[in-house]
Amino acid sequence: MSERVYWVGLSQVPGIGAIRLRELVAHFGSSQAVWSAPLSALRAAGLDLRTATTLVESRPKFDEAKIFHAMERAGVRAVLFDDPDYPPLLKLISDAPAVLYVKGTLSNADRRAVAFCGTRTATEYGKTMTTRLVAPLAESGIPIVSGLTRGIDTSAHLAALEANGRTIAVLPGGLDVSIPPESLALAERIVAQGALISECPLGVPVKRFSFTPRARLISGLSLAVVIVEAGETSGALKTADAALDQGREVFA
User: Fold this and answer.
1) In angstroms, rounded to a whole number, what is the distance separating the alpha carbons of residues 93 and 245?
2) CA-CA distance, 181 to 95, in Å (whole number)?
3) Residue 210 near residue 216 (C-beta atoms within 8 A)
4) Domains of the chain by range and CATH?
5) CB 225 within 8 A of CB 117
6) Residue of 58, 32, 39 lying closest to 201 (CA atoms)
7) At what angle do helices 152-162 and 124-139 cross, to 10 degrees?
């Protein structure tokens, strides 16, 4: 297997997050060496017994041909942290994913991206204000990042598309299973003028805890986060918190 395949395989092992994976590769010298390391060496490198055992037991179950064939059929590719087209702003956060799954195109313009977030139960005023804020940015070549959920997110994506701009949707699960049914047509338009991005492999379902990690990606991909309309319990506030932790601007 190639280094790329080993990275993808390692990124799918439960218990090995982005930071730990990069630490392991630095320790062993390559992703292939991590994949091949015996249990004792993994333990000596700092993995707890459960995670090290899971990694060892994952090896015979990893079906390279099946995984990459599914990605090819879905039009999805794996972008590694060290690839030249890995989003430059995302690379700056401490827990940047080792592997991103992308459908669509990444661009140098993404280093100027701005995120828009807000409630799923947006008012007409909130939707209108989102459009008014997004349209001139998109027209000037600034990519718009959001989460492809109902309400403010959908308004942000649509406004960018209608302005012939670029937009990126960040999903909380596998790109083949986490697009809301009502957003399938919008997702195809986004692919044509931007990208769908997830840190989750294909087939990973959305769970309640999936949205906090997704929030850090939305903010990590962006120079600034704009919260248009959000209640006290809105998930958009998680994105604002993540942005502040990452040293990004927040506007509300």
Assistant:
1) 9
2) 30
3) no
4) 1-62 (1.10.150.20), 102-251 (3.40.50.450)
5) yes
6) 58
7) 40
| 97-154 pLDDT, tens digit each | 999 999 999 999 999 999 999 999 899 999 999 999 999 999 999 999 999 999 999 9
146 Cβ neighbours under 8 A, 6+ residues apart: 115, 116, 117, 152, 153, 156, 157, 167, 168, 169, 170, 218
Q: Annotate the chain with three-state secondary structure.
A: CCHHHHHHHHHCCCCCCHHHHHHHHHHHCCHHHHHHCCHHHHHHCCCCHHHHHHHHHHHHHCCHHHHHHHHHHHCCEEEECCCCCCCCCHHHCCCCCCEEEEEECCCHHHHHCEEEEECCCCCHHHHHHHHHHHHHHHHCCCCEEECCCCCHHHHHHHHHHHCCCCEEEECCCCCCCCCCHHHHHHHHHHHHHEEEEECCCCCCCCCHHHHHHHHHHHHHCCCEEEEEECCCCCCHHHHHHHHHHCCCEEEC
> What span, in angstroms and rounded, lies between the C-alpha atoms of 235 and 35?
36
What pLDDT score does 252 carry? 85
**pLDDT score, position 232:** 72
Q: Which of 49, 65, 62, 84 is nearest to 10 (CA)?
A: 62
Which portions of the chain are predicted below pLDDT 50?
none
